[in-house]
């Protein structure tokens, strides 16, 4: 009976291992524009570019201005780049190639800032592979100046249809009747601007091909400030949002909620009272006040667009397009603006919150968390970031969403953070090769076969795994159940030939294990063999485990990264970092909080001496690996065999 219960628990546990992973605003191709700002003196249009894991060669173009700029970013480098003032839109119909087009050889993030003497704002730019064909619009109501939106077309002709929810007198375009469609044709990289003294909120925008949509206000509030944001497509919206707490008095803060479908039910919970509304029509909007130190929880039965707005006094107004709680991430970056007092706002899952660190200029600190009154699983924190221009990272083991806002006299800005993942380096340029045959996922360059990409496996926290093929699972159960699962996993893959170790404590199976994360399971004379193993411990709680030790066996060497920060063990000898091994074929360095081991064939192992492990392998090893990181065959479904060899979807 006990054995049957263990098997039943194991089957349920394997089913529970599946998790949802979400992408971030990093990519290799972006399109953007700048909405008209109120003031035009001392105009600064800037892009903040950050390279991720690889060196990036970046090209910035505005074809209609005959502007182009090429630059190279080293891994992790952030650079502010100016673009011509003419990139700011001034009229409805703009020429082809009037978009700001950013392309890169490797993954980067892009944040755009429009700064004038007294008015400024910024926006995180979405890569083109995450754009959509349907949007809902929000523009702040009130004020004597124009509410604005702009459509930016991609690399092919497109047709875009606008459907306002009410009559709109569009500047230079005439009257657009509520409920009626207006369709325009756009050429490659063409931009289209809509300005009106009446609100554009709720308008539906649809297109044949993906497009970017920006919205805001030319100058909102008193004294007024420019508001400028890129809107997410409907496909990226969600049904639950954590709303940041309001600003301190005398600032007034609110949240606006826009429906995307008819008959949408909305709940707004402040921890004491839950306000419920039923909105009959798509595009309808409601607003609720947000008080200081009291974040809200917004939920709906259908997808919502949720926007935070504040007068931000004694500074100028700010606007944030919020990210739904099903699109959290554990690592973020923020860009702060020079000479503005900046503040980070972090909304996090309670579990894992103590691991979160906020770092800038190699100095890190921990947030002071407050309880989220409206949701027991959430906490929140604010952190002052100073008045200097900085690239700030927020990193931990919890799922979270991060924003930044700031201001000074007659100025304000706010942006979402950019979440980040371990991203693969990009393959070198292809060279023509005759008579050279390469393996799958390799190409010939200069007469030799090289990998075209890399894949990354990760183990985070207690621990949460993500395989090379992108499957996410949690591996938290200690004792007989875990032993049974590992035994099955090892026996199913590679004919049971893999190494399995087990150490018992006090005569039972609730001890620590050594697991093969990845190894070369299918030998090939052209592939260098290697094995990466981890040893876990439970750190006081036998129901969860954490990565304690990482061991890399390669080139007949044994390299152990354990708890000796700044040092590693090589063939039993403790050595200081950095160290070069095997005639330069292997190196281990300390980069920030991580020990980073790299090899001449493309293996990279990053471990923070605590609980965060990333393993990247070149695509030359495609279909040649095995271990908890999966078999790297492009199919995430078969990464987790169930008992008896059955696969779990």
Helices and strands in order, then pairings?
Blueprint: H1 2-16, E1 27-32, E2 44-51, E3 56-62, E4 67-73, E5 78-83, E6 100-115, E7 120-125, E8 132-136, E9 147-153, E10 158-163, E11 168-170, E12 174-176, E13 182-186, E14 191-196, E15 204-220, E16 225-230, E17 238-243, E18 253-259, E19 264-269, E20 274-279, E21 285-290, E22 296-310, E23 318-321, E24 329-335, E25 341-349, E26 357-360, E27 363-365, E28 370-371, E29 378-386, E30 391-408, E31 411-416, E32 418-419, E33 442-445, E34 448-451, E35 454-460, E36 464-466, E37 472-474, H2 480-492, E38 501-502, E39 513-520, E40 530-537, E41 546-554, E42 557-561, E43 567-570, E44 573-576, E45 579-581, E46 586-591, E47 594-599, E48 604-607, E49 612-618, E50 625-626
Antiparallel strand pairs: 1-6, 2-5, 2-6, 3-4, 3-6, 6-7, 8-15, 9-14, 9-15, 10-13, 10-15, 11-12, 15-16, 17-22, 18-21, 18-22, 19-20, 19-22, 22-23, 24-30, 24-32, 25-29, 25-30, 26-27, 26-30, 28-29, 30-31, 33-34, 35-36, 35-49, 36-37, 38-39, 39-40, 39-50, 40-41, 41-42, 42-43, 43-44, 45-46, 46-47, ...
How would you summarize what this structure contains?
4% of the residues lie in helices and 48% in strands. The protein contains 2 helices and 50 strands. The strands form 8 sheets. Strands 24, 25, 26, 27, 28, 29, 30, 31 and 32 form a 9-stranded antiparallel beta sheet that branches. Strands 37-36-35-49-48-47-46-45 form an 8-stranded antiparallel beta sheet, with no helix packed on it.
General description of the model:
The protein is mostly beta strands and 649 residues long. It contains 2 helices and 50 strands. The strands form 8 sheets. Strands 24, 25, 26, 27, 28, 29, 30, 31 and 32 form a 9-stranded antiparallel β-sheet that branches. The protein has an 8-stranded antiparallel β-sheet with strand order 37-36-35-49-48-47-46-45, with no helix packed on it. Helix 1 (2-16) packs across helix 2. The longest helix is centred in the N-terminal third of the chain and has 15 residues, at 2-16. The model is unreliable at 1-22, 422-427, 477-511 and 641-649 (pLDDT under 50).
């Amino acid at each position: 009976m006990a054995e049957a219960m263990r098997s039943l628990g194991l089957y349920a546990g394997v089913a529970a291992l599946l998790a949802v992973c979400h992408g971030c605003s990093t990519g290799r191709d972006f399109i953007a524009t700048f909405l008209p700002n109120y003031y035009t003196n001392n105009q600064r249009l800037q892009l903040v570019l950050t390279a991720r894991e690889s060196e990036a060669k970046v090209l910035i173009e505005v074809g209609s201005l005959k502007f182009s700029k090429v630059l190279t970013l080293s891994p992790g480098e952030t650079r502010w780049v100016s673009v011509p003032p003419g990139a700011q839109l001034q009229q409805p119909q703009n020429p082809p190639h009037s978009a700001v087009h950013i392309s890169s050889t490797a993954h980067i993030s892009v944040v755009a800032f429009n700064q004038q003497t007294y008015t400024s704002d910024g926006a995180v730019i979405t890569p083109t592979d995450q754009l959509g064909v349907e949007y809902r619009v929000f523009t702040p109501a009130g004020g004597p100046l124009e509410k604005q939106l702009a459509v930016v077309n991609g690399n092919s002709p497109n047709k875009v249809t606008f459907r306002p929810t009410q009559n709109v007198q569009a500047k230079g375009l005439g009257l657009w009747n509520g409920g009626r469609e207006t369709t325009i044709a756009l050429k490659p990289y063409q931009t289209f601007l809509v300005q009106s003294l009446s609100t554009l909120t709720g308008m539906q925008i649809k297109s044949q091909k993906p497009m970017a949509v920006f919205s805001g206000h030319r100058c909102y509030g008193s004294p007024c400030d420019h508001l400028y944001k890129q809107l997410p497509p409907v496909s990226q919206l969600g049904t639950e949002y954590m709303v940041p707490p309001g600003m301190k008095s005398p600032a007034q803060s609110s949240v606006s909620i826009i429906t995307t479908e008819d008959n949408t039910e909305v709940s707004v919970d402040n921890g004491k009272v839950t306000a419920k509304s039923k909105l009959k029509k798509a595009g309808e909007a409601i607003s609720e006040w947000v008080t200081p130190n009291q974040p809200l929880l917004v939920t709906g039965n259908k997808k919502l667009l949720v926007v935070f707005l504040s007068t931000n006094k004694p500074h100028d107004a700010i606007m944030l397009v919020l990210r739904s709680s099903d699109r959290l991430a554990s690592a973020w970056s923020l860009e702060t603006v020079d000479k503005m007092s900046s503040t980070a706002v972090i909304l996090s899952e309670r579990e894992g919150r103590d691991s979160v660190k906020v770092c800038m200029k190699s100095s890190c600190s921990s947030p002071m968390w407050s309880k989220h009154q409206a949701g027991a699983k959430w906490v929140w924190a604010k952190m002052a970031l100073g008045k200097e221009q900085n690239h700030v990272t927020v990193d931990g083991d919890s799922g979270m969403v991060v924003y930044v806002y700031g201001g000074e006299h007659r100025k304000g800005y706010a942006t979402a953070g950019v979440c980040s993942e371990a991203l693969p380096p990009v393959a070198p340029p292809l060279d023509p090769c005759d008579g050279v045959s390469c393996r799958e996922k390799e190409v010939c360059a200069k007469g030799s076969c090289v990998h075209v990409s890399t894949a990354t496996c990760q183990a985070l926290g207690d621990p949460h795994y993500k395989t090379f093929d992108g499957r996410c699972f949690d591996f938290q159960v200690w004792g007989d159940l875990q032993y049974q699962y590992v035994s099955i996993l090892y026996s199913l893959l590679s004919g049971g030939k893999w190494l399995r170790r087990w150490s018992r404590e006090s005569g039972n199976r609730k001890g620590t294990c050594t697991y093969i994360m990845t190894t070369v399971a299918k030998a090939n004379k052209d592939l260098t063999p290697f094995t990466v193993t981890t040893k876990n411990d439970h750190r006081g709680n036998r129901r969860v485990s954490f990565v304690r030790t990482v061991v890399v066996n390669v080139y007949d060497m044994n390299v152990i990264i354990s708890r000796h920060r700044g040092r590693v063990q090589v063939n039993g000898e403790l050595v200081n970092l950095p160290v070069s091994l095997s005639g330069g074929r292997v190196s281990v360095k300390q980069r920030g909080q991580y020990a980073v081991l790299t090899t001449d064939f493309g293996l990279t192992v990053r471990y923070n001496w605590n609980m965060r492990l990333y393993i990247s392998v070149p695509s030359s090893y495609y279909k040649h690996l095995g271990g908890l990181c999966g078999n790297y065959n492009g199919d995430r479904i078969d990464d987790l065999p169930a008992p008896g060899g059955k696969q779990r979807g």
